[in-house]
Structures are given as structure tokens and as C-alpha cells.
Design a protein that fits this description.
By secondary structure, the chain is mainly α. It has helices at residues 12-25, 30-43, 47-58, 67-80, 84-97, 102-114, 118-133, 144-157, 163-171, 178-181, 186-189, 195-216, 229-238, 249-265, 278-287, 297-307, and strands spanning 222-226, 271-275, 312-313. It has a three-stranded mixed beta sheet, with helices on both faces.
Length: 338
């Protein structure tokens, strides 16, 4: 499905089947592809088949990159078609595991919230925020939904603002404040006959919709291709015509960082890095009926890897491992002059 395809024109069942076929062609990317297939099945209303896909991933002999995310999605899906007890058990397991990725926390907390388990949702959001954001001066973008979700639930519970709510306000960038967006009394204004109140609510809803669109836009990052040192040596040995593209590995790494910073400064959102391997690149070239020595294939290869869910968001946190694979924190490595 193209990113600009209107949702109402999508055959979700057919799209899920296409993604399953693609996963069979690219087993190294099966986790990302099958998760997208399961999402389409949920949208199609075929929740049992979506659960079967989640079970297929969890029973795989190959290690998953994010098993907690798969479990969280399975729990949310199960609860939607009557399997509440199993969903609750999985949610508790995710909470006990304390994943460092915010996505599983968001999913299980929102599952609790959507079923009116507001106190449990609040506790889950709070637990995640404390785990992931304590002593973090600048919350990374993936953690923002935790702050926003916690703020929303606290408003519904009638709790007063605390320091985490204040932090949520600082990272919120829309013209409508979080207090307005999350006001429990908004529902009453929808039934008002006062055109001023209705217009104000429409403005709030547009702002909220804008936030969702911003989060969902560009599902595939603008990705730059990265070759680890051993892979680049193998690539240039096999295809010396590419030496003009890669004078040295150090130059290659510096070029990636500078290109991403330039894109970022120009306002390009959702940047990422994809890591290439020679066998994967050769397979891609064969599928394009072209030679791997053709430099024009490189950006196409990067785009294909990103579309298969292989991109890692850039920039990482200052304290996170640098994208280059050096093992150093990003702030002490390629991010030191950011």
C-alpha cells in the first residue's frame, strides 16, 4: 500500500496476503512485514487470523527483534474480540518484563484505557514514564505518546498536574493545549447548539487529527544506506566500480552523518539509516535485472530496505549506542558535534 493511498480504498485482506507473501521472500524481514499484515487483518475485522499471525511470530525459532511489541499487539487484539482474561495476563507479563522500548507500553496502556480501566492505564503509563524518562533531559520522540497518554488519562480521572504532565506540555507542539485536547467535558460540547462552542470543538478535533496524521505520515523513513566495515570491504572487492562512491569507510560514515544533518536542517522529517549486506544487495540487484556494480542501484536498495521495515530512526539519543556500530554513545561518537 502506498503511503498516500486513501484508507477507505484499501482492501485490507488483500494487502495482508501480499505482505505475507513478501515475508516469505524476505525471511529476515518477516517480523516487520507480518506485523503490518496483522494490522491490516485487524482493520479488516479478521481478528482471529491476526492473532494467528502474532502466534506465528512468537513461536518462531528465530529470535524476534521486539517480542514485547508482538505480545502487546496480541493482547490488544485479543481483548477486542472477547478474550479479556488472556489479554490481561499478557499485559501483566509485558509490564513485569519492563521493556525499554516505549511502543509496547503505549499499546498495553491504551488497551486498558479503551476498556475503561483508567486506573490501571494510569499506573501503566506512569510506570513506563518513570522507567524510560527518569533523568532524561530531552524525551525522545517515541516516548511522547507515553507522556500524552498519561496526561489524557489523568484528566479523565480528575487528577491535578504533576511534573510529568508539565513535561508533556513542553513537548506538545500543537496550537491546542493538552488540557483542551484532553478535557473530559469536550464530549458535551458536541451536543451543543451554540455555533461558537461547536466551532471551538471542531478546531480542537482538527488539531488532534493533525497530531495523528503527523505520527502516521511517511511510514517509511527517508533512509541513508550504511555499510559496516567488513561488508564495505567485501562489496568493494567484488565490485571495484563502486570505489568512487566509497573512498574509505571513515569517509562513508562521515558522509552519512552530514547528509542526515543537512536533511534535518532543511526540515525533512522521519529520517533513518538502513544497514546493507552484500548478499542482500546482490539479491536486490538480481531482482532488478541489473549488476551490483551499478551505483544507481544503491539509493533504490536503501529505499527497499526502508520499505521492508529495516530502517533505524536517526538521530539516536545522546546516550544510546551510535548508529555506526562503534559501541560508543552517539553523543561521544558521530553525534558529538550535533
Amino acid at each position: 500500500m502506498r503511503p498516500d493511498t486513501p484508507a477507505e480504498t484499501v482492501d485490507h485482506t488483500a494487502e495482508a496476503a501480499r505482505l505475507e507473501r513478501t515475508a516469505g521472500l524476505y525471511p529476515e524481514d518477516s517480523e516487520a512485514l507480518l506485523l503490518r499484515a496483522a494490522a491490516h487483518l485487524e482493520l479488516a475485522g479478521d481478528r482471529p487470523t491476526a492473532t494467528a499471525l502474532y502466534d506465528r511470530l512468537l513461536s518462531s525459532t528465530d529470535g524476534l527483534e521486539n517480542p514485547h511489541l508482538v505480545r502487546a499487539l496480541k493482547a490488544s487484539n485479543l481483548w477486542e474480540y472477547g478474550h479479556e482474561a488472556e489479554a490481561r495476563a499478557i499485559i501483566e507479563g509485558v509490564r513485569v518484563a519492563s521493556p525499554r522500548d516505549p511502543a509496547p507500553w503505549v499499546i498495553v496502556a491504551e488497551a486498558l484505557e479503551s476498556h475503561d480501566e483508567l486506573e490501571a492505564a494510569h499506573d501503566t503509563f506512569t510506570e513506563a514514564v518513570r522507567l524510560l524518562l527518569t533523568d532524561v533531559p530531552h524525551p525522545p520522540q517515541p516516548t511522547h505518546p507515553l507522556l500524552f497518554g498519561r496526561h489524557r488519562v489523568r484528566r479523565m480521572l480528575g487528577k491535578s498536574h504533576d511534573e510529568w504532565d508539565a513535561l508533556a506540555d513542553t513537548v506538545h507542539s500543537l496550537p491546542i493545549t493538552l488540557d483542551e485536547l484532553h478535557d473530559p467535558k469536550r464530549v458535551w460540547s458536541l451536543g451543543s447548539e451554540n455555533p461558537v462552542e461547536l466551532e471551538a470543538e471542531i478546531t480542537r478535533l482538527r488539531a488532534e487529527l493533525g497530531a495523528y496524521r503527523e505520527a502516521l505520515s511517511r511510514p517509511f523513513p527517508v533512509a541513508i544506506l550504511h555499510w559496516p566495515a567488513t561488508e564495505l570491504s567485501e562489496l568493494l572487492e567484488a565490485y571495484p566500480t563502486l570505489a568512487a562512491e566509497y573512498p574509505s569507510h571513515e569517509t562513508h560514515l562521515a558522509t552519512i552523518e552530514s547528509a542526515l544533518r543537512e536533511l534535518s536542517s532543511s526540515g525533512t522529517p522521519n529520517l533513518g539509516i538502513v544497514t546493507g549486506t552484500v548478499p542482500s544487495y546482490e539479491a536486490f540487484a538480481a531482482s532488478e535485472l541489473s549488476s551490483p556494480g551499478d551505483a544507481t542501484l544503491l539509493p533504490q536498495y536503501a529505499t527497499t530496505l526502508a520499505a521492508r521495515g529495516r530502517a533505524v530512526a536517526w538521530p539516536p539519543q545522546s546516550t544510546a549506542a551510535c548508529w555506526c556500530g562503534s559501541g560508543q554513545p552517539y553523543g561521544a561518537c558521530h553525534g558529538r558535534t550535533a
